[in-house]
Design goal:
71% of the residues lie in helices and 2% in strands. It is globular.
């Protein structure tokens, strides 16, 4: 069947330029990012094989979040995604808060991705400063996002193809190496590596729980398919299939990959300064394989940064249309792209370039810790909205879609409790996690002040309109 795109913009100003092929790969690619390709190495070195359980537990939470998102999208597809759902089912303040927390998520994620790009390129160009590489990558991605959504979709499609192909190749190769008990870096691959070096929990259960925040970050961007629904032809048919694809690939790609990594090499041979996939392939001693894998994980970092510019551009425009973000962030260019929001986020990404200049070693950990707050806020918003949608349907106010979150409302409450646990545990983590945790009251105050300012401006505008309309 030929893919069709609609050239004319819809009521929101967007064109339905993303095809089924692109949306499905965006959904899959969104679930494979730098949190796995880079972050898993440092966390394996920190916690050992117990990281597998952290990925499985967070993957279960991600499953329920995605099903909640699917139900909301089938209720009403919109490029504003959960911001519009929060506004509809919880209240205007929830739309404002969730939108800006999502922006915080992607602003910090972009910094992490920019840092990852610099780390990967450093392998080939050790004399080039990290901030230079970060700046070049940012410039390229901003141009792509400003040109057209179709170009974004095509680039993200091929980024995702590279990531998925690499993971599949790794899974088959890893399984073969484990079954064959291959010699890797002087050691034998096998199931024994899971328990031979201090057991499954070499650092203790407490330390294993501390990794939940980083794993939650690894799963960030899975909600991107909900935002893409607003620019997708026939979303009611395409989106459920895309979401179902994400759900089972989470188990295979994430949990399967971390399990294999723990079996291929002793956990203490991994590090946070290099992708664990590069570590494995380099240890095989095959010339050039490590460099190929490094190019793949570089693609993953560029992909995630690309997605961040795309999604925040749409979310900021949704906020701007309600007077909850600077007016210029709502501006569309002649190619029907929200250029104001994209440029606003790119300025935040420039802060990542500065962070790479000042503290190149700490930039990644700090960025993903703060970004995790935004991920948790987004996931919690989606669950809360689904709970409200279900209640409204029971009251007969709306029709609940046939594609539903299983086990609701109990699975929804359990997921919210798990997300609360993740936030509490951050207070007992490392320096980066504690920085993120103690930034919560700062963010809360900023959001409160921002919302009060929005309400005051609306009240003033309303009073002025009433004076104009009043008869003399």
């Amino acid at each position: 069947m030929n893919e069709q795109t609609v050239a004319e913009p819809d009521a929101d100003g967007y064109t339905k330029a993303l095809s089924k092929r692109q949306v499905q790969m965006i959904a899959i690619g969104g679930a494979i990012g730098v949190g796995l390709f880079l972050g898993a190495g440092g966390k394996l070195a920190q916690t050992g094989p117990s990281l597998v359980f952290a990925y499985a537990l967070c993957g279960l939470a991600a499953f329920f979040v995605m099903r909640a998102l699917g139900e909301l999208v089938l209720h009403r597809p919109t490029a504003g995604s959960f911001v519009e759902y929060a506004r509809e089912f919880i209240g205007p303040w929830a739309g404002f808060t969730s939108g800006w927390m999502y922006w915080v998520n992607w602003a910090m994620t972009g910094i992490a991705e920019i840092t990852a790009v610099a780390i990967y390129v450093h392998r080939w160009l050790p004399d080039v400063p990290q901030w230079v590489t970060a700046l070049v990558a940012l410039g390229f991605l901003v141009v792509v996002n400003l040109l057209s959504v179709k170009l974004f979709g095509e680039l993200e499609f091929w980024f995702s193809v590279v990531k998925v192909t690499a993971i599949v190749v790794f899974l088959f190769t890893g399984i073969a190496l484990v079954i064959g008990r291959a010699d890797i870096g002087g050691g034998e691959a096998g199931v024994a590596n899971l328990v031979a070096h201090g057991g499954m929990f070499p650092a203790g259960v407490g330390i294993a729980l501390m990794t939940l925040q980083a794993v939650i970050f690894a799963y960030s961007a899975i909600e991107l398919v909900g935002i893409a629904a607003g620019e997708t032809a026939d979303p009611r048919r395409v989106i459920p299939k895309a979401i179902n694809g994400v759900v089972y690939r989470i188990g295979v790609f994430y949990v399967g990959s971390v399990l294999l990594l723990a079996m291929l090499l002793p956990w203490n041979l991994y590090s946070g300064g290099e992708s664990p996939f590069v570590t494995v392939f380099s240890a095989l001693g095959i010339a050039g394989v490590g460099d190929v894998m490094n190019a793949v994980v570089l693609t993953a970092a560029l992909s995630s940064c690309n997605s961040g510019l795309y999604s925040t551009g749409r979310i900021l425009r949704s906020l701007a249309q309600h007077g909850e973000a600077p007016a210029f962030t709502g501006r569309m260019n002649r190619r029907h792209v929200p250029q104001g929001g994209i440029l606003f986020t790119s300025v935040a990404y420039l802060f990542g370039v500065v962070l790479n200049y000042l503290v190149p070693k700490e930039a990644f950990d700090i960025a993903i810790a703060v970004a995790s707050l935004g991920v948790v806020a987004t996931w919690a918003t989606l669950i809360a909205c689904q709970l409200r949608l279900r209640r409204a349907a029971l009251r007969g106010e709306v029709e609940r879609p046939a594609y539903r979150m299983p086990g609701a409302p109990y699975t929804g409450w359990a997921t919210l409790a798990f997300l609360a646990l993740v936030i509490v545990l951050m207070a007992f983590g490392g320096p980066a996690e504690r920085i993120a945790f103690w930034s919560i009251p700062v963010l809360a105050v900023l959001l409160f002040v921002g919302w009060r300012a929005v309400r005051a401006r609306r009240s003033t505008a309303h009073q002025a309109a009433e004076r104009v309309a009043a008869p003399d």
